[in-house]
Amino acid sequence: xxxxxxxxxxxxxxKSLLFFTGAGISAESGIATFRGKDGLWNxxxxxxxxSFSAFMKNPDMVWEWxxxxxxxxxxxLPNSGHYAIAELEKYYxxxxxxxxxxxxxxxxxxxxxxxxxxxIVRNFCVDCNTFYNHQxxxxxxxxxxxxxxxxxxRPDVVWFGENLRGHAFPNGERKAKECDICFVVxxxxxxxxxxxxPITAKQYGAYIVEINLEPTELSDQADYSxxxxxxxxxxxxxxxxxxx
Length: 244
Ligand code: OAD
What we know:
This protein has 11 helices and 9 strands. It is an alpha/beta fold. The two termini are 15 Å apart.
């Protein structure tokens, strides 16, 4: 692929890269995206599966849905896009701010990751907040109970109507302000506050590179939009390092 020369120059001079990623980066690993042709939210109602009130109304059903998704995630591997981002750490200060809950950046070897929407492999008690991961007990399709207080255990993902938890978003904002290039990969960039990350990066002077199959809400703000599969484009960007 012949990248735009302005981008090649910026990439050569950059020290800090931020990768803001969404479901599209994991599509080539076999995990369905939320929107678009085969998107999950075309077939399922998010408010019935991904909200606290749905969980309290029917905890077993919501748990079973997450258990199903957890099994899919466990059965997949990171793809060449995730690996290329991890490999770039050898040459740059690389941060990943992801909306994905699938753990694939970590499994690919990235070391600095902020998970804005949580992680499907972590769980916590709704009453006492004790954390559990899948090694802690055998999960099946029935919602487990906390060993300390018998409360319901829920996945540590951000549901509709919930605020982002922890430090992920402030960390992401800080990184957005500090990066030289912000790559926006495989996201429709319509879910807020997550989508403020690339907007903040732009406001603070970063060069914005979008990698997506098609134009998105962010395309107008991007300095460079590269259309295609992230699993093919990111390894080619990694190869630029050796050509620079
Ligand atoms: P979406 O499903 O909204 O968007 C996926 C994007 O990836 C689309 O723009 C696709 O064009 C693009 N895409 C698909 N395959 C690709 C590929 N191989 N290479 C590059 N791009 C590809 O997913 P997100 O933007 O991540 O929130 O969705 C944001 C949030 O909405 C999710 O984190 C989730 C959801 O509701 C919560 O669960 C809180």
